[in-house]
Amino acid sequence: MTKILDEPRYVCALGALQTVEAIYRAIPIIHAGPGCAAKLSIGGRSGYLGPQTLPCTNIGETEVVFGGEEKLRTLIQNSLKVMDGDFFVVLSGCTTEIVGDDIHSVVSEFEDAEKPVLSVATAGFKGTNIEGHEWVVDAIIDQYLSKRYFGEKIKGLVNIWGPVPSYDPYWVGNIRELENLIRELGLTPNCIFGEYRGIDNLNLVPRAECNLLVSSWVGLGNVKNLEQKFGTPYLHYPTLPIGAHETSLFLRTIGEFFNIDSQLVEDIISRHEKEYYYYIERTCSIFFENRASSKMFSTVTTADYALALSKFFINDMGLIPSKQYITEGVPEEHQDKVKQYFKEFNFGIEAEVVFSNDGYLIHKQIEEDDYAGTPLILGSIYEKKLVTKLNGTFLCVSTPFQERVVIHSSYVGYNGGLKLLEDLYTSVFQNFN
């Protein structure tokens, strides 16, 4: 029997169009009905194009009966003529795959086009936007990068993979801060996502000395694919580094992997920690004397954010974890490893992990849990009403994210940890003052 989910935290695989949009001057071509593209583009401009200017076949009853391949062929031809882009990716929806349209065959006809044209089967019934994100990256590797030669390896060049574009509300700022940290170690970061990161950055991917994956599980298949295709080793760092403890560990891990002089790494860490703890010390009374703040917390978010926030609040702030709810539908083959990450906190502290994408069941468990006082819940906008009911503290950190506007903020790094504390204790004051 089909299970009905309340308040799911993801969209269908066609949501991978946001991954394409995150590559500068890359254009998604949607082979689906107009409603699919319109709903997935809600929220305003997220890429090089505005949300209402994406090429779409807008299939209807005629295409359902007779097929839509000819309409797709015409749309690709016209898009190449009139759309000012460097890179085109055809994405399919449910209806076109159900009726049997072969987008890969149609796209193969454009193999010699002036601009690259790729195809990704992203029917909603095949998976989520997180899986769709991985499929888009694999398509770039298999259909574009592996068919061309871009030159020899560049010493010190590091590809950065991690935050899923748009699905992570802070993705742009988080990636940029990861780039800054890598750059401080004397390495050259390369990322294909974000402003002015486009075809030139894509062309550098096979030439990197290393692929750095900063994610608990998303993208692991991609970096393994890159290793197989180009012989590029990868470093899997499962935790998005937030605050002094994890960011310093991150820098040491990168330094050791690249055999960077340890004294240089420690000097960088010392400089950052000196500034970081200055700000902590001058405001520590807020953290330790505010009796309205919470001592136990739960996260209702992705595995990446649940782990990163838990490490920060436990290792840096000395808070105690209650259950951590992971909502993006982590595949079973990754769940045991993800659970293990939540057993590796300081002081022998462990956190119970609950994999669930059903908001009703999650909220029911939170209401039944004993937080020994005021609970701290970090999740999506779905949790706000619940936390108000529990008289707790709430911070919106993940999709659906409708609490505030994020332009370039980041929770990554030393400054990101301070930003997180600002946001959290602002919420505390708003609730209890």
Structure summary:
This protein has three domains: 13-147, 3-Layer(aba) Sandwich (Rossmann fold); 157-261, 3-Layer(aba) Sandwich (Rossmann fold), CATH 3.40.50.1980; 274-432, Nitrogenase molybdenum iron protein domain (Rossmann fold), CATH 3.40.50.1980. 44% of the residues lie in helices and 13% in strands.
Structure characterization notes:
- The protein is of the alpha/beta class and 433 residues long.
- It folds into three domains: 13-147, 3-Layer(aba) Sandwich (Rossmann fold); 157-261, Nitrogenase molybdenum iron protein domain (Rossmann fold, 3-Layer(aba) Sandwich); 274-432, Rossmann fold (3-Layer(aba) Sandwich).
- The protein is 44% helix and 13% strand.
- It has 18 helices and 13 strands.
- It has helices at residues 17-21, 34-40, 61-66, 69-82, 94-98, 103-108, 129-144, 171-184, 199-204, 220-230, 243-257, 262-282, 284-289, 303-316, 332-341, 359-368, 384-389, 413-432; strands at 26-31, 87-92, 117-120, 157-161, 188-190, 210-214, 234-237, 296-301, 320-321, 324-326, 353-355, 375-379, 393-396.
- The strands form three sheets. Strands 8, 9, 10, 11, 12 and 13 form a six-stranded parallel sheet that branches. The chain has a four-stranded parallel sheet with strand order 5-4-6-7, with helices on both faces. The chain has a three-stranded parallel sheet with strand order 1-2-3, with helices on both faces.
- Strand 8 (296-301), helix 14 (303-316) and strand 9 (320-321) form a beta-alpha-beta unit.
- Helix 11 packs antiparallel against helix 12 (262-282).
- The radius of gyration is 22 Å and the shape is globular.
- 48% of the residues are buried.
